[in-house]
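Lecture notes, unit on binding sites. The following record was shown on slide 14. It pairs a sequence with calcium ion.
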Amino acid sequence: MPKAAELVIDAKATLGEGAIWHAQKQRLYWVDILAGHVHIYDPVTNRNRTIEVGQPVGTVVPRRSGGVIVAVRHGFASLDLESGALHVLCEVEHDLPNNRFNDGKCDPAGRLWAGTMSMHGEEPGAGSLYCLEQDHSVRRMLTGVTVSNGIVWSLDQSTMYYIDTPTLEVTAFDYDVATGSISRPRAVVRIPKDQGLPDGMTIDAEGMLWIAHWGGSQVSRWDPASGQQIQAVHVPTPLVTSCAFGGSNLDELYITTARIGLDETALREQPHAGGLFRAYPGVRGVEAVEFAG
Ligand code: CA
């Protein structure tokens, strides 16, 4: 049984999310969605730098040509990490003022997939899943999504794994990396109701899925072939939102958390809610793909 996750940065994020390790820069990027913050954490100095974006930021991914791409309230934008300059690449859902972007990640070809949800929380079918191409055109890939969340690709690139949180499932799709098309959805993992809600997700070097449990105080490891849970890391606060392997050996599991909705009593008991945590689960991750456009 691996040790529980330990606090790294007492960030007190409202809705910490979107952890992703940028191997080229040896930095962890993560966001506070509702505060509109992009965070850059350097484990060597243990410093966390914050960029104020000025609008909700659902997710952040590194960009091959420099800087990062963020999914902001109504579209995709580039963000210069030195100047903080935001440049919108393409608008999405400007006709749906109550929606915002949520989690996302790049596919093996460097396209960015990210989905939307209602600003008001769980509104059934309000969201969609989008794919931002390298040429900055965007395609709507799924409709009728409620809380678009964790997304990751199998190591052989043939499968996309995706979480729409209220389903309590990980859905697998056959993936065509040449065209960025998905087909044949089927449930491969089901999270027991008493373990919280599936949120963010990453994959390790053995092809196993790591899932953050919102309301479940843990990150769990699953075999998508058998649907069995094979490991779990306790996180000492309930709202666990995303996870990413990082560090120079990709053996450090970074975990984001939230404090939104916790009342005064809960916050007294959970003073580190909204912090950035780290665990050493004994397996390695794989490098995240940069946006290629
Ligand atoms: Ca999330």
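Take-home: The first strand starts at residue 6 and ends at 9.
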